[in-house]
Automatic annotation (TrEMBL):
Belongs to the MscS (TC 1.A.23) family. GO terms for cellular component: plasma membrane. It comes from Ligilactobacillus salitolerans. Residues 137-200 form the Mechanosensitive ion channel MscS domain. Signal peptide: none annotated. Residues 93-134 form the Mechanosensitive ion channel transmembrane helices 2/3 domain. InterPro entries: LSM_dom_sf (IPR010920), MS_channel_1st (IPR049142), MscS_beta-dom_sf (IPR023408), MscS_channel_2nd (IPR006685), MscS_channel_C_sf (IPR011066), MscS_channel_TM-2 (IPR011014), YbiO_bact (IPR045276). It is found in: Cell membrane. It is a multi-pass membrane protein. Its main location: membrane. The chain crosses the membrane at residues 39-64, 85-106, 118-148. This is Small-conductance mechanosensitive channel.
Length: 301
């Protein structure tokens, strides 16, 4: 071994000894009791705060539910059931976000995170956050205007854009709509631009029956009128008696006999099917040869 190697070996040995000595000195002088006590105290505070906010959340939900249940029992209330259900779901939504915000604030404070400094410093990133949260804010504002203007309520049958179905819930950010096929659609409130509400007015069932060119049209109208006189008393949902509008050109080379029936909202489809079936059966028994009839449904105006 050369002299240089000898000195290098001594230097490494001294360095290792020094490192071990520093580590040993650190562990011997470390306040283990204070650190463990601080950790246990923090864990205890986190558990206590979590239990407290859980109780607040459960009790708050129960109070909100009891409040709205008492309003449902109040028959003199000026709010409809759908309106109450809408305000109820929105109240739960707001309460949920409020409790979550204060819970996170308390947790960060216990962990020693300077929440106040973070909130103050957030002004520096306000532009960036504003751009990122622009859609979120728009969702909330639009949701409040939907509720304020009573565009639709929970339980109503509507068409939002291309989605048609029953309103399941209205939240701060999204509106949930249960489609005709059973799918639950979550629509951001900012995406709701055109609302077609089918649950506010009487609906119109529009029935077109193709004409048999070999038969008398007046005879066809007479048979349909007889069917109307027989079926109308069986349906309380009919708000206006059926009207035979006469012969109409559908624009595709077909002449049809058009009948309109106004019903309560939600009943137009079933009444349309029943009356169409009765019309076809009566006309067939009278010797009419009727092709498959086109059917249209539209809301009253």
């Amino acid at each position: 071994m050369t002299t240089a190697d000898h000195y290098l070996s001594l230097a490494v040995s001294k360095s290792n000894f020094f490192s071990l000595d520093v580590v040993k000195h650190y562990f011997n002088n470390f306040d283990w009791d204070g650190t463990i006590s601080s950790i246990l105290q923090t864990i205890g505070s986190l558990l206590l705060v979590s239990i407290l906010f859980l109780l607040v959340y459960l009790i708050g939900k129960k109070l909100i539910k009891r409040t709205f249940n008492s309003k449902k029992e109040n028959k003199a209330s000026r709010f409809s059931e759908n309106r109450k259900a809408t305000i109820y779901t929105l109240s739960l939504n707001i309460f949920h976000y409020a409790v979550l915000f204060f819970y996170l604030y308390a947790i960060l404070s216990i962990l020693g995170v300077p929440v106040g400094t973070l909130i103050t410093g957030a002004g520096i990133m306000s532009v960036a956050l504003g751009l990122g949260a622009q859609g979120f804010v728009t969702d909330i504002v639009t949701g409040f205007f939907i509720l304020l203007e009573e565009q639709f309520s929970v339980g109503e049958y509507v068409k939002l854009g291309e989605v048609r179905g029953t309103i399941h819930a209205i939240g701060l950010r999204t509106t949930q709509i249960l489609g005709d096929d059973g799918a639950l659609h979550f629509i951001p409130n900012r995406s709701i631009t055109v609302v077609s509400n089918f649950s506010r007015n009487d609906m119109r069932a529009l029935i077109d029956i193709r004409i048999d060119p070999n038969k008398d049209i007046q005879e066809m109208e007479r048979i349909i009128s007889e069917v109307n006189e027989k079926l109308v008393p069986e349906y309380d949902e009919i708000t206006q008696s059926p009207q035979v509008l006469g012969t109409v050109d559908t624009g595709d080379g077909n002449l049809v006999l058009r009948v309109t029936i106004y019903t309560k909202n939600g009943a137009q489809a079933s009444i349309q099917r029943d009356f169409l079936s009765a019309y076809l059966a009566a006309l067939t028994n009278a010797g009419f040869k009727i092709p498959t009839s086109p059917v249209n449904l539209s809301n009253s105006k």
